Every structure is written in C-alpha cells, then in structure tokens.
Amino acid sequence: MPDAAAGFSSSAVLPTLRDACAQAGLSSEGADLLRLGENAIYQLAVPVVVRIARSADRLPRVQRELCVARWLTASGVPSVRVYEDVDQPMLLGGHPVTFWHQVTGGDPVPTHVDLARLLRAFHAAKDCPCPLADFEPLRTSKSRLTETEGVPPEDRDFLRARCAELDGQFQRLEFALPRGPIHGDAHTRNLLTDRGQVVLLDYESSALGPREWDLLPTAIGVERYGRPEVQYREFADAYGFDVRAWAGYPVLREVRELTMTTWIMQNIGESPAVAAEFALRVASLRERDFERAWNFF
After folding, report:
1. How far is CA 205 from the centre of its chain?
2. Which stretches within 226-271 are classed as H helix?
C-alpha cells in the first residue's frame, strides 16, 4: 500500500472524504476545509465535522481520541461530542476517519481562563477507561522526521540531533504535579463554543504523563506569539499552578517548541508562508533565540 502520509494534502484526501461520507450515509458536497495539520478537518453541509488522519499508523491515536471524548462527556467535562450515528473509526485509503457533531459557535468566546478551567476538570476526572500510553513528547517528532521530503538536509539533521538531546533531558526531569491523564495539546485553539458553553476538543495526543505539559502552550503564547503577560497570569491563577516557576520549565518548553516546529514542517509544500515559518522556527531553535516571534498557523 502506498504511504498515505507522503501525499497528505487538502486535495489528496478528497476521495477519502467522499468515500467516508458515502459509507456514513452523508453527502460530501459543499464540504469546507477547516484546517490541515495532523488531520484534514472538513465541515459538511449538515452539522457534522469529519476528521481525516494522515496515515493508517495514526489509527490507535484516533481510537484513543474517540474514547477520551466519550469518557469526558460521561464525566461531565464539557467536550466536543462524537457523532454516534456512524460506526467508527473508518479506515479508508490508508486514512483513519472520524465523525463529530458540529459545535454551534456563538458566545461566550473561549478564553485562556476557560482553558485553565477545563484543564483542571480534565485532570480531576476519575476512572479513565481509555488505554492511554505513557507520554513520550518527542515520539511523534521523531516519526515526522522520517518523512522529510522538501526539508533542507541540514535542518532535518539538526532537528533529529536536537530530538535526541532533549529526549535525554526530558527523562531526567522531576515534575511537581501528579502524573495522570493529560490532554497533550492544550491551547485555546482547541476550545470551541457549543450550545452556550466552552468545550474542549482534539484528544489524539492524550496520554498518561505530567500535567505540566498541558500548561506550556499558554506560557509559550506569551513568549513566542506576543500574547499579553496578564493572560498567562490569569491562566496560572485559574489553574492553580505557575509552570514557569517550576525548575524544569526551560527544558519542557524546548521540547514543546521542537514538536511545534516538526508539526509545521509536515506542510511546507502547502504554501511559501508555511515554508518561511518553518525556516524561522528552525533558525530560532538553532540559534537558541527564545525571544524571536513566531507566527500562528
């Protein structure tokens, strides 16, 4: 079977979208691409969202995402809801496919304080039934770095070497918070408003690991993306822990930023802007410039 991930693009997955919708008894006509990253995410003409993962090896992650969403819903944690009228996940054309209820949008607009509140609820939820793996923050980046078509060799080699160095440093960290289920990719763009309440989504990276990891993106939002310092202070106060005051923060921040760099690396062929952002991020990591501004994608 050809490598589905190697040809993953907004156009290449359209046959998979059509086939999945046909099996689900839904129409793909008029579907809008919402986002392309680890998944291609489409909004159908009906209130259903379709997520198409990069390749078949993502199937365990997709199954985990469905399980976590169902667990959180059953636990009373506001979450995006699985579309239960379909037997899923599907595996079509080498891509795992899942279906979700569209959220309604509207007010209130999700904020960093909502994120802190939802993370507290997520971390406090009991009796997780999902087969969560031990957290390995660089595992996905290592996998991405085996598929580097179009990436300058010197950048690929640098990122691979940095993965190895940071992996060792991560293993030696002593964490302050109790270990348990974590979201894995907790930032405000993984919040939406549904039926008048802010909900959490995107559980593919959920694992058993340090809660500090879920607190990083808001801190990095200040340091890389120019978010106001007051937003981080409000976030830390609402959650009840300041990850930047923890001694292991500098190492964990570097780990997170490397994963963010390999994430955007996957789509450097999509546009010159993406390629330029990847180059900017690699340069700042190579030069250990922790204040250089990054751009959202």
Report:
1. 6
2. 229-239, 249-265
Q: What mean pLDDT value characterizes the chain?
A: 95
What would the pLDDT profile of 195-236 be if each residue is shown by its tens digit?
Answer: 999 999 999 899 999 999 999 999 999 999 999 999 999 999
This prediction's pTM: 0.87
- Does a cis peptide bond (omega within 30 degrees of 0) precede residue 78? no
- Torsion sign over Cα 122, 127, 131, 136: positive
The length of the chain in residues reads 297
| CB neighbours of residue 34 within 10 Å | 13
Which amino acid is present at 80?
A: V
User: Do the beta carbons of residue 37 and residue 31 sit within 8 Å?
Assistant: no
The architecture CATH gives domain 5-101:
2-Layer Sandwich (3.30)
Express each pLDDT in 180-195 by its tens digit. 999 999 999 999 999 9
With beta carbons less than 8 A apart as the criterion, state whether 193 and 104 touch. Answer: yes
Query: Are 132 and 208 spatial neighbours (Cβ–Cβ below 8 Å)?
Result: yes
- As to burial, measured by CB atoms within 10 angstroms (0-12 exposed, 13-18 middle, 19+ buried), residue 147 is middle
For residue 41, is pLDDT > 50?
yes
Tokens of 9: 């693009």
Cis peptide before 108 (omega within 30 of 0): yes
Answer positive or negative: Cα dihedral of 200, 206, 212, 218: negative
Q: 233 phi and psi, to 5 degrees?
A: -60, -45
Residue 85 CB-half CA count within 13 A: 10
Q: What share of the chain is helix, strand, coil (3-state, %, to 5)?
A: 45, 15, 40
Using DSSP's 3-state secondary structure scheme, residue 221 falls into helix
Residues of the chain with CATH 3.30.200.20: 5-101
The first and second tokens of residue 96, run together, are 């795992």
Kindly indicate whether the domain formed by 112-286 is annotated with CATH number 3.90.1200.10.
Answer: yes
